[in-house]
Design goal:
1 helix, globular, about 100 residues
């Protein structure tokens, strides 16, 4: 296995937005799904409920994947897992409040 940048670091925030922390990532088939997370800076605190997908074969990153079912509120510090080819998001915190998801 070898680590490599998908895009130049200086181009990343322009093309994909800011980096996230406290997100979850799960592999389903030939894709890795990145869910939620947070980002903060001197201007504010931001939580995400977005789902990104990285295709391991084509090496293409897809932003804001359409989902089925109830979309969780933006959150961080949660977990996610694949069961039967479905992605489940569990727990986490929404704007610094405990959540029963």
């Amino acid at each position: 296995m070898e680590w490599q940048f998908l895009v130049k670091e200086e181009e990343y925030s322009i093309k994909y937005g800011y980096s996230k922390v406290y997100h979850s990532a799960s592999k389903i088939g030939n894709a890795i799904y990145l869910v939620g997370g947070e980002w903060d800076d001197e201007y504010g605190f931001y939580l995400y409920n977005s789902v990104w997908m990285y295709n391991l074969i084509t090496k293409v990153l897809y932003l804001t994947i359409k989902t089925k079912g109830i979309v969780p509120f933006p959150r961080h510090s949660h977990g996610s897992t694949e069961i039967g080819n479905c992605l489940y998001v569990i727990g986490g915190t929404e704007y610094h409040k405990d959540n029963d998801l």
